[in-house]
Amino acid sequence: DGGITQSPKYLFRKEGQNVTLSCEQNLNHDAMYWYRQDPGQGLRLIYYSQIVNDFQKGDIAEGYSVSREKKESFPLTVTSAQKNPTAFYLCATQDRGHEKLFFGSGTQLSVL
Amino acid sequence: QKEVEQNSGPLSVPEGAIASLNCTYSDRVSQSFFWYRQYSGKSPELIMSIYSNGDKEDGRFTAQLNKASQYVSLLIRDSQPSDSATYLCAVKASGTYKYIFGTGTRLKVLA
Q: Which of residues 65-94 of A touch B (CB under 8 A)?
């Protein structure tokens, strides 16, 4: 079954805790992205990666970290430095040479 | 700061009518434009892409692009209650891998 898999679907974070959101793809797409969506707001870019072992900060990278050790995987860690982490997190991929962005099913992160 | 602007709505149309959704953008050299549909609690789904001036039709959907006016629109013909969702406009920034999203327009199709 091809596509973009995000897990978990729901995640709860305690204060002071780091949590990691998983994003895996088997589309063989080069670029991967993390977006954050707050209610009634558009998508804001956290990080993106065009190739393995390389990634760039987006508009709201503070309090987040990523890695891209494999083409298929782009995990996002929400650190304790992110004081307002409650949001819907979306992972997306894009194939080189094609402009279209495709999204995973998302992870809803809430604070306990 | 490059921006994409959309009216948040809700835009209410009766079933069978044409729904018209609009989007303006500030980056004059943007080249790629997209419309996504997002149901509540779900991820965005790509429904249309457009790259050159004019109209592009796909089934009940028509995307219209006017680069001189920095304006892109989405028309939905024969609107159905299942079209009720938030529609996000996205613009790919020139020379980068960055996509800039509007805040979305909520569409309600009334049965």
A: 90, 94
Contact A99 B51 (CB under 8 A): yes
User: pLDDT tens-digit profile of A11-54?
Assistant: 999 988 999 999 999 999 999 999 999 987 889 999 999 999 99
A14 touches B at CB < 8 Å: no
Residue of B nearest to A42 (CA): B103
pLDDT tens, B2-40? 689 999 889 999 999 999 999 999 988 888 999 999 999
- Buried/exposed code over B9-27 (b: 16+ C-beta within 10 A; e: otherwise): eebebeeeeebebbbbbeb
Chain A nearest C-alpha distance from B18 (Å)? 24
| B100 exposure class (CB count in 10 Å sphere: 0-12, 13-18, 19+) | buried
Q: Which of these, A101, A85, A93, lies nearest to A68 by C-alpha position?
A: A93
